[in-house]
Amino acid sequence: MSCGEPHETDCSEVLDHLYEFLDSEMPDIDRDKFQHHFEECSPCLEKYGLEQAVKKLVKRCCGHDDVPADLRAKVMGRIELIRSGQTVPEHDVTRAPTAPQET
Question: Looking at the Swiss-Prot or TrEMBL record, what is one Pfam family this protein matches (predicted)?
Answer without folding.
Answer: zf-HC2
